[in-house]
């Protein structure tokens, strides 16, 4: 069984996401895929922001039949693995919601269990071309990959960093916090952390972000108005790039990534609670940060979403460790284009 899963994963990431080409099927508004226990609907952004792009619905028909992982009521704020923001360290109206506007086409890939969202640089006010590739992998996984290129680095200002923000608008959860391996304070031993994004920091607005133990805070100009996604807690910090959450129906959603922190880029883990306390429906989000963008250099990351019955924290950790151990080397590896 494990060999089959590993082989499936290897096949998944032999599909490169560098650009739209003749591997792609015709553009479609929605694509439905069934694989293993999962039934998934993917959507483009042609109806955005009224209906969001990415994973529009996610069902595990064995463990929670008929129960959507994502908020089924707020169609304008309901989706998973949704590309929501590109953010810089200087003031610009483009810091909010630009991936939700402009052409972002959806295509089925030849293996029939994969789809790709394609964004051209000319359709982005940031002049960033990007692809998001999703593969539904039995029994209960969505493997995903983000690739992007910046075609005008000057748009990111003197600070030079770029933050790519992704949202998961959850259905009812059993526990609001993100659970991750980390440290409570510098020098502490690694342990399980329940991050519930408490108020306190000056730029707190409904939630916050956790960064890796080796990561520094992002600096941004004093006149920046959209700050809720740019700041991060000094403590606690995560040590492994994954988290899980406890969902209703005794389900768990696990998100894991192929990198934590490098000199070039890093992942960050976010939680926002705008729908609380009216509904137990947090946004379990994440960020990909490039420290200083270079023109025409490819950046990106790979990840896996797990939607299954909750077993234990140890089982969630094992899901991450098994995936990370068997993940093929990244062929792009952040190298500049020739």
How would you describe what is shown here?
By secondary structure, the protein is mostly beta strands. Helix content is 8%, strand content 37%. The protein contains 2 helices and 18 strands. The strands form 3 sheets. The chain has an 8-stranded mixed β-sheet, with no helix packed on it. β5 and β6 (114-119) form a beta hairpin. The chain starts with a helix and ends in a 12-residue tail after the last helix. The relative contact order is 0.17.
Tell me the radius of gyration.
19 Å
Distance between the termini: 40 Å
Please give the domain count. 1
How many individual β-strands?
18
CATH class: Mainly Beta
| Contiguous runs where pLDDT drops below 50 for at least 5 residues | 1-20, 334-338
What is the helix content?
under 10%
CATH architecture: Distorted Sandwich
The structural class is: mainly beta
What does the largest sheet look like? 8 strands, mixed
Element string (H = helix, E = strand)? HEEEEEEEEEEEEEEEEEEH
Mean pLDDT: 92
Strand content: 35-45%
Give the overall shape.
Answer: globular
């Amino acid at each position: 069984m494990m060999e089959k899963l590993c082989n499936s994963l290897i096949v998944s990431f032999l599909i490169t996401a560098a650009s739209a080409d003749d591997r792609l099927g015709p553009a479609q508004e929605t694509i439905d895929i069934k694989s293993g226990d999962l039934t998934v609907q993917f959507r483009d952004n042609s109806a955005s922001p009224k209906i969001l792009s990415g994973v529009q619905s996610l069902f595990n028909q064995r463990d929670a039949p008929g129960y959507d992982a994502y908020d089924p009521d707020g169609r304008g704020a309901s989706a998973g693995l949704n590309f929501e923001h590109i953010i810089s360290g200087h003031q610009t109206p483009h810091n909010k919601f630009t991936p939700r506007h402009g052409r972002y086409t959806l295509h089925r890939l030849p293996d029939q269990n994969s789809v790709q969202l394609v964004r051209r640089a000319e359709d982005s006010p940031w002049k960033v071309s990007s692809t998001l590739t999703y593969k539904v992998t039995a029994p209960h996984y969505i493997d995903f990959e983000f690739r992007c290129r910046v075609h005008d680095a000057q748009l990111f200002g003197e600070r030079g960093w770029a933050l790519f923000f992704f949202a998961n608008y959850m259905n009812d959860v059993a526990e609001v916090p993100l659970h991750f391996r980390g440290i409570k304070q510098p020098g502490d031993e690694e342990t399980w952390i329940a991050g519930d994004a408490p108020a306190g920091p000056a730029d707190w607005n409904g939630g916050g972000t956790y960064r890796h133990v080796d990561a520094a805070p992002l600096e941004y100009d004093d006149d920046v108005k959209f700050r809720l996604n740019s700041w991060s807690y000094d403590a606690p910090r995560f040590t492994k790039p994954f988290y899980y959450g406890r969902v209703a129906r005794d389900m768990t959603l696990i998100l894991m990534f192929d990198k934590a922190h490098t000199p070039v880029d890093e992942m960050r883990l976010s939680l926002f609670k705008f729908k609380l306390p009216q509904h137990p429906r947090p946004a379990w989000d994440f960020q990909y940060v490039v420290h200083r963008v270079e023109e025409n250099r490819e950046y990106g990351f790979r990840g896996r979403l797990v939607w299954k019955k909750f077993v234990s924290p140890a089982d969630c950790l094992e899901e991450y460790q098994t995936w990370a151990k068997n993940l093929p080397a990244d062929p792009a590896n952040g190298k500049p284009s020739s």
